[in-house]
Amino acid sequence: MDSSKIYDVIIIGSGVSGAAQFYSFAKHSDLSRVALLEKESQAGMINSMPTNNSQTLHEWDIETNYDLEKAKSVKLKSGYTRAYVTEKSDPKLFLQWPKMVMGIGQQECEFLEKRFEEFRGLFPTLEKLEWEALREKEPNVFKDRKQWERIMGLYNPDGITVNYSLLAQSLVKDGQGIAKNDPNKEYETHFGTKVVDITKDGEIYRVQTSDGEMKAKFVSVCAGAHSMYFAKKAEVKEAKHLSLLCVAGNFYYTPKYIDTKIYTVQDPDLPFSAVHWDPDILDPNRTRFWPTTRMVFMLERHRYKTVFDFFVTLPPVFKSLIAYLKIMSDLKFALYAFKHNVVFQIPWVGNYYFWREAQKIIPSLKYSDVKLAKWQGGVRPQIVDTSAKKPLSLWEAKLSAGNIKFNVTPSPWATTCIFNGLSDAKEITETLGGEFEKGVV
User: Fold this and answer.
1) The domain containing residue 107 runs over which residues?
2) Under a CB-based contact definition with an 8 Å cutoff, are residues 228 and 309 in contact?
């Protein structure tokens, strides 16, 4: 590692966010020196891993907690990811998989009828299906179901399941290939390189790593929950009133019962998805039921050393604790948290209660078929704004201070990773006085 070299940009983290930035610089920017740093042995090995996320390209046609305006924005942005993966035509990278939100009972069905009329213009492939049409698509949804129960689905055959780990690796590989063919570009990847500290020295940033020091004119931190960790260490003003609520997702495997990704109607007063089924790109012959969501005090799941890193993100401690109490003071949220953090964690008992919830989708589901996916599930770093009346935010956070940017990107923002990468690369390129290809984003 040459400590005298000054890079235009150093990107920290090669999940889908950092990988998309690296690719965007290589393809569309005239910046000549860019380095990508990653502590793991290859790209996409933490929250981008298919065992750590839902593998879904979210477009918010079936996710009922978002309105039409937000769906318009996300569909546009997720279209960049869709275009990239479908062009690859790699069944290991993505699978075409239909998706549906299912309403059970009169109230939920009436809600979906209104939603269908509102959303059908934005999603022309969306279909409204009732009992008989649904039975043809998914007979197991109706096996052992009460005949008098009203049921409806908003069905979209144009769903996509993505292996975001392979997407990150593909983006890095493509970026390397593009830069290699440009004599004016020197783009490097450093895997197995852990970032220890970032300090500002005049107009230059010094990045201390496990392999030595590196220097850059601009630093972009795309390290998930650790982006907030580095922002706090750097005492970034925008981060002073923010902290994290780290939510870990668990899921269960069953044999394959259905052929469609199925969501259920979400409670509008809760910030997390209702029980749903996701296809598994690693094994299409099994079913994954989500979610049980646990609050954890670590930045990476099952990596207990990151508990210490979590406490770096906590200040202002007193205000953060007050914010957590505000969140928990909502009775629905508190009951949800108790069920998911206590009941679902009890051996056998947790399996039983989740099985009962999953029977909302598959009434004939057998208890013996429900198996907890042990040591799987990632961490979703939800932003907590300690200065807000409602402190819990479901959105991503982009923090900056001078020529350093911190991206904290909770699920489902892998969906929009390429759009975000292009936008960030364009902004950074122009900040450094370079040129970015026009009309790309």
Assistant:
1) 98-158
2) no
